[in-house]
Design goal:
Strand order of the largest sheet: 1-2-4-5-6-3-9-12-11-10-8-7
CATH architecture of the largest domain: Roll
Largest sheet: 12 strands, antiparallel
Structural class: alpha+beta
CATH topology of the largest domain: Thiol Ester Dehydrase, Chain A
Order of helices and strands: HEEHEEEEHHEEHEEEE
Strand content: 35-45%
Length: 289
């Protein structure tokens, strides 16, 4: 197991302080602030620990309220809003320095049969034909600082492979659509229970970039101030994070310093397993940030 994967497992680990009260055990990760996907995944894990066995998350809706402090533990407070025969609902507040940094509502359901249809997965090259982040970094190494080249060349907990090859440091305007293959970079135990939490973590990695594509920008454009504002997920069908998933994204709109992006996540056999929607802050400044 590589160091980054162990760190991901550590980031998902929570200490139980009391009924409905949890706290991070390890230092958080992120660039300038805590990575939003980490807080999202831990909030979902907190909620999951308070529901009866057999109930699976089918939707979550979260607001990112404040930047997180990487050096300080996060406290997760879970409120039981409803326990019904089929559905139960939880509200989670992530707290640092006495203030909320994330608010999440999640709904869980006992498995049921019913009507079934889905959107068709697009035809794209398989993950084996797509470049890894390390291969992309070396392809565009002349555009990268030594620090970024080293960062992109290291092992990652989540293997992300964009279908379209592009230079993120020198992007050109493109349609507001992209597809990315992803999976966790190891084989997980057959009974591993945290696939939904891991996917919540990974779902925040690439989505906001899609709303920047028509403008010839990326998250590395120096004049941008960007941050996730809210994040919603709907879990349709079972999946595993150690199997390849295709994250198909589009951005219908950007306006008023916000970008809106959507994603459908498919198993490699074509099953639609999760849908995602996110709005993010996108401010363009005259000088580099």
């Amino acid at each position: 197991m590589n160091q980054q994967l162990q760190q991901l497992f550590d980031h998902l680990d929570l200490e139980t302080l009391d009924d409905g009260l949890f706290q991070t055990r390890h230092k958080s990760e992120g660039w300038r602030h805590i990575f939003g996907g980490q807080v999202l995944a831990q909030a979902l894990l907190s909620a999951s620990r308070t529901v009866a066995e057999g109930r699976q998350v089918h939707s979550l809706h979260a607001y990112f309220l404040r930047p997180g402090d990487k050096e300080h533990p996060i406290l997760f407070k879970v409120e039981n809003l409803r326990d019904g025969k089929s559905f139960c609902t939880r509200r989670v507040t992530a707290i640092q320095h006495g203030a909320a940094i994330l608010n999440l509502a999640a709904s869980f359901q006992l498995p049921e049969s019913g009507l079934s249809h889905q959107e068709t997965m697009p035809q794209v090259p398989p993950p084996e034909a797509c470049l890894t982040r390390s291969e992309l970094a070396h392809k565009f190494r002349d555009s990268l600082s030594p620090e970024l080249l080293a960062n992109f060349s290291r092992p990652f907990a989540i293997d992300l492979r964009p279908v379209d090859v592009e230079n993120m440091m020198r992007p050109e305007p493109r349609p507001a659509r992209r597809s990315v293959w992803m999976r966790v970079n190891t084989d997980l135990p057959a009974d591993y229970p945290l696939h939904a939490q891991m996917l919540a973590y990974a779902s925040d990695m690439a989505l906001l970039d899609t709303s920047l594509r028509p403008h010839g920008m990326s998250v590395y454009s120096p004049q941008l101030q960007i941050a996730s504002l809210d994040h919603s997920m709907w879990f349709h069908r079972p999946f595993r994070m150690d199997e390849w998933l295709l994250y198909v994204q589009d951005s219908p709109s950007a306006s008023a310093a916000r970008g809106f992006s959507r994603g459908n996540i498919f198993r490699q056999n074509g099953e639609l397993v999760v849908s995602v929607a996110q709005e993010g802050l996108i401010r363009v400044h005259d000088t580099p940030r």
